[in-house]
Amino acid sequence: MAPPPPSAANVSQPVVDSLSAGPMPVTNQPGTNKPDTATQPLAVVSEKLPWRHTFISLKVPNFRIFAIGHFIAVIAVWMQRIAQDWMVLQLSGSVTAVGITVALQFLPSLFLGPWGGMIADRFAKRKILIICQSAAAILAAALAALSLTRVVEVWHVYVIALLLGFVTVLDQPARQVFVNELVGPKYLRNAISVNSTTFQLGGLIGPALAGWLLTAVGAGWAFAGNAVACCSTATMLFILRKDQLHISQPTPRRKGMLREGLNYALSKPTIYWPWLMAGFVAVFAMSLPVLLAAFADHVYDAGAGGYGLLNAMVALGALTGAVASARRRQLRLRSVVVSAGLYGLMLVLSAAMPSMVWFCVAMVLAGFWCLMFLTAANQMVQTSSNMGIRGRVMSLYLVVLIGGQAIGGPVMGWLAEHLGPQLGILIAGGVPATAAAVVAVVLARRSSLQLKVDLRDRRRVVRIVERTQTA
After folding, report:
1. What are phi and psi of 234, to 5 degrees?
2. Given phi > 0 = left and psi -120 to 50 = alpha, else beta, which region is 218?
3. Per the database record, which ranges form the Major facilitator superfamily (MFS) profile domain (predicted)?
């Protein structure tokens, strides 16, 4: 283990719901008055870190190795995602077909996600990830072969996207929980932010490389690169030091495990409300690449390079958001709601942008707030439950987040194709923004909060206070 940061060595506290009466409830063991220690919320460091400790979790050797492999894999995944969507658009001429591809890749998580979480709770996470990366490499290699031999058809992409979706059912919950085994609870929030940073940095590089590859040599080489990257990730998982992992005891199999996870999650505001907001964002606003394909092809006539550029602008904003989330001192429920609302608002504003330059600016801001929402929601859900049940809780969260994209992908593709890209992105942002406003009002009334404007305080002109607070 790496030494703790000097300013946060021994200071921790439970996650607190900032818009409810107090700390989250802790469940009791059946038939006793003792707290169920397997499902208590984690203690997390809440002191502000110095800049040199912004990514303190990278001091842990195992996590550093994992982060390098994850970074390489993310670049390759973004290359494949962009190349796949663009290839389907060129083969079919239909934005709806792109949405169907997205839906097929996420559809298995909608129906099988909870079982993936149960498997993550019951078996070794590292072995699950190695198996999943090996399967992903085979699928990417098959798609590369079909593309490079020029025999690929849209239905080939559909089948491979669906099979990759089955891999995701196991990979995603295991990956979420495995982060804690790499760094332990002390660095968990920071490690989540580091993962988000590497994902978004890869998202900045991957689309640019994909755009270049699509123009220079075709989509097949992007798929081949992803196959190689998956193999490298599996290799890095093999070389991790097992004696330095914070391995949790597998949860024994018993009846009602999925129902237990659902009931547990619904009983906690810091899990329930992020779930709800993730549902609105996932269905309407997480299929942004589908809409960007429509803007690049039908609005700005920018081709594959322009499509890669638009995705890179989103990733640039998200990268900035990832760094900002790593600096976040307190984890608040209001941060989840506000970030979701601002993400939706940026998409609404982008519909009125007069040129591609201004549209790119809007995408940078949208990417920033999207990432701020995703990291806040992810951190809150993860730190609200302990290892004994977190695989199931995270899988249910991912059902909402990923399964929502399975629904939203074809819907947003149809809207963009039949109503126009501008109206499509207006709906994509308007629904989550409205939902965030409603949720904010509900939470504020429950917690007796209100906005206070103080023109004398230049640093905090507008802030949230209790109604009884006068200062």
Report:
1. -60, -40
2. left
3. 62-448
Q: How far is residue 440's CA from residue 449's CA, in Å, rounded to a whole number?
A: 10
- The CATH superfamily holding the domain 55-246+257-466 is MFS general substrate transporter like domains (1.20.1250.20)
Quick one: pLDDT at residue 41?
Answer: 43
CA distances from 247 to 44, 173, 185, 241, 412 (A): 18, 15, 12, 12, 41
At 145, the pLDDT band (50, 70, 90 cuts) reads: very high
Reduce the DSSP state of residue 282 to 3 states and report it.
helix
CB under 8 Å to 225, separation ≥6 — which residues? 76, 79, 80, 213
How far is residue 41 from each of residues 367, 382, 387, 412, measured CA to CA in Å? 30, 9, 9, 37
- Extents of the domains making up the chain: 55-246+257-466
Residue-wise pLDDT for 23-59, tens only, equals 333 344 433 434 343 444 444 444 455 556 667 778 8
For residue 289, give every residue at least 6 positions away whose Cβ sits within 8 Å of its Cβ, in sequence order, or none.
81, 82, 85, 98, 102, 311
Q: 314-354 pLDDT, tens per residue? A: 888 887 887 787 666 677 788 889 999 999 999 999 988 88
C-alpha–C-alpha distance, residues 87 and 77, integer Å: 15
- In this predicted structure, what is the pLDDT of residue 187? 79
Query: Which of 242, 230, 261 is closest to 129 using CA atoms?
Result: 230
